[in-house]
Amino acid sequence: MAEGLENIKFDYAQIGGVRLHYATAGEGAKLVVLLHGFPESWYSWRHQIAALSDEYTIVAPDMRGYNLSDKPAKVSDYEMDKLVNDVTGLIDHFRRGNAAVIGNDWGAIIAWELAEKHPEYLWKLGALQVPPPAVWRKNLSFRQLLASWYILFFQIPRLPEYILKLNDYAVLENALKNSTAEKGVFTDEDIAEYKKNWKEPFALTAMINYYRANLLKGFARTAAAAKKIKVPTVFIYGEQDRAILRETVKGVGDAIDAPFEEFHIPTSGHWAQQEAADAVTEILREFLAE
């Protein structure tokens, strides 16, 4: 594991009918919640948990359906409102009133939705790689649709789970190891940790259900229906991302009606907090301290 994680603690929070497993470190007065995406877990934030826990209370949950958190059986159990409620419930669990919420991939989508629907829960907002939904829809191109082919593939029942399990989860391993801008970001130890997550009962279906539960509803929303974000926000984008293209993240600041900063990392891909761990940590440290 990454240096500094020997001080990490693990626990569970009962949020409504779902029990969420989380990693936590630090005892700072302010709460920072780190949300992972597909196909990861709390572990994707291992570098930032270690580095930022000197100043903040850091909490990185396994989102519902992932790793050691509960895995409800229905597709509808993974609709966006429920995912957002998990985060507000986690903030309530720590009794801090509010939190800085930073998300990557699905974690970013949930963070944007939280900021729009429940800004009172946030003192700051951070998103990596994924722009606000209104910006995504405005910039959606044929090239982006091709890059997002897997989202449509995941709508098929059972077949995606079967394929992802083949050859000891070779597709998912390849998605991590071979889609980075530089080789060697994910060690064998890191991959072994993720494989433990994927092998949890029902985990693959639960992870894919995020896509099944939210695809049509996401496209049905109009840009006009979106509210501007009124929370101080940072957006970080690794420019080598093959899943979310550069043209798709243009104009993120147009969706923010609050202090806003944007950083692009030319040498990083989709897994920015792992590929450019030091750069992301320093951006977040400065942003949270302002």
Task: Walk me through the structure.
The chain is an alpha/beta fold and 290 residues long. 40% of the residues lie in helices and 17% in strands. It has eleven helices and eight strands. It has helices at 46-52, 80-94, 106-117, 133-139, 142-147, 149-153, 159-177, 188-198, 203-220, 272-275, 277-289; strands at 9-15, 18-25, 31-35, 57-61, 99-104, 122-128, 233-238, 260-265. Strands 1-2-4-3-5-6-7-8 form an eight-stranded mixed beta sheet, sandwiched between helices.
Observed structural traits:
290 residues, alpha/beta, Rossmann fold, eight-stranded mixed beta sheet, 40% helix, globular
CATH class: Alpha Beta
The stretches of 5 or more residues where confidence is low (pLDDT under 50) are none
Structural class: alpha/beta
**So, CATH architecture?**
3-Layer(aba) Sandwich
* Helical proportion, percent range: 40-55%
Domains, number:
1
CATH-defined superfamily: Alpha/Beta hydrolase fold, catalytic domain
Radius of gyration: 17 Å
Structure described in brief:
With 290 residues, the protein is α/β, with parallel strands linked by helices. The protein has eleven helices and eight strands. The radius of gyration is 17 Å and the shape is globular.
SSE arrangement:
Elements: E1 9-15, E2 18-25, E3 31-35, H1 46-52, E4 57-61, H2 80-94, E5 99-104, H3 106-117, E6 122-128, H4 133-139, H5 142-147, H6 149-153, H7 159-177, H8 188-198, H9 203-220, E7 233-238, E8 260-265, H10 272-275, H11 277-289
Parallel strand pairs: 3-4, 3-5, 5-6, 6-7, 7-8
Antiparallel strand pairs: 1-2, 2-4
Helix pairs in contact: 1-11, 2-3
